[in-house]
């Protein structure tokens, strides 16, 4: 697991928390912030996943 994957998952968790807090406190701005954080986290994790896949593929091609 690389740093982009870890940071991406962390952003997703923070987003879930902010979304839940926004729902409980009836704060649409906080809820939206949580949604956006989750989206950003998913993108960053996908980037990290792609980097890992590329690294694994390079290892397979050049043992």
Structure, described:
This is CsbD family protein. This protein has about 60 residues and is mostly helical. It has one domain. About 90% of the residues lie in helices and about 0% in strands. The chain has helices spanning about 5-25, 30-60. The radius of gyration is 16 Å and the shape is rod-shaped. The mean pLDDT is about 95.
Keywords:
63 residues, mainly alpha, rod-shaped, CsbD
Short description:
Helices cover 89% and strands 0% of the residues. It has 63 residues and is mainly alpha-helical.
Q: How many β-strand stretches?
A: 0
Mean pLDDT: 96
Radius of gyration from CA coordinates: 16 Å
Percent range for β-strand residues: under 5%
Helix-strand pattern: HH
Outline type: rod-shaped
Number of domains: 1
Secondary structural class: mainly alpha
Protein name: CsbD family protein
Biased composition (Basic and acidic residues): 48-63
Region (Disordered): 1-63
Pfam families: CsbD (PF05532)
Tell me the layout of helices and strands.
Elements: H1 3-24, H2 28-61
Helix pairs in contact: 1-2
